[in-house]
Amino acid sequence: MTSRRARADRTPESVPARGEADYLSLIRRLKESLDDTQTRFHEMAESIREAFWMTDPGSSRMLYVSPAYEQIWGRTRKELEQHPRSWMESIHAADRAAVKESLERQRQGEATEEQFRITRPDGSVRWIENRAFPVCDAEGRVYRITGVAADITERRRLEQEILEVSTREQERIGRDLHDTLGQELTGITLLATALRRRLQAEQSPLAAQAEDIRAWVVKALEQTRRISSGLSPVDKVPEGLANALRNLCEMIRNVYDLRCRCRIRPPARVPDHPTATHLYYIA
Description:
By secondary structure, this protein is an alpha+beta fold. The protein has helices at 2-9, 18-45, 68-73, 77-82, 86-89, 93-107, 153-201, 207-231, 240-256, 273-282, and strands at residues 51-55, 62-65, 112-119, 125-136, 142-151. A five-stranded antiparallel sheet has the order 2-1-5-4-3, with helices on both faces. Helix 7 runs antiparallel to helix 8 and helix 7 crosses helix 10. The radius of gyration is 36 Å and the shape is elongated.
């Protein structure tokens, strides 16, 4: 009787419903999982060397930026939070227009990747590779933009060194062809010419063969000079690229009998000789 009376005294309000207990347990597990995810995110974002960032579509509010920003830009995150566009002030004037264009493409929902230069407060110039990824809502509207910015100054320096070494090696091979093989072929041409004249004076039927030998050597000499010029086609002067492109156009007309025009507007002045040489090869 006592057991029955005790059970009867326990009203439904005094015992949590099983559904409510499960619901509270689910909320607790979700919160623990969310806290764990946030902790992992911050551990990752604050330990990588690249600057991880997140803004609103208009770049008017910096939602998050990792500590690596301070190492790369040489500026504080607090300054960036107070002035979200302060990072743009560091961009080199020659690269600013391209970066602004990328920002507009990001607002339109396009992922972008660009390289640009920044000037740090100490006056040093760094190369940045920035990759941005728009985040859209269920209706396809961009409501957040995330990205990763990496300092690639050292990589750019190594790439430039490789270009310079490659260019110097090509110039050396070109000089060797011109100064050694070219001179030897020139000597053979003179000998073949002298032999032809002697045989002609003797009215020898071998004079025609001597002329054939001379003609073939002349062709080989022209080919050697063309190869030598192709290995070092751009002179080390500001107008070197423009002059080389005009010569290329003339060669195409003469050798291949094709219409070819060279128009350069404005004058192409590339002071960096390896870059000018590789632009020529692209052409």
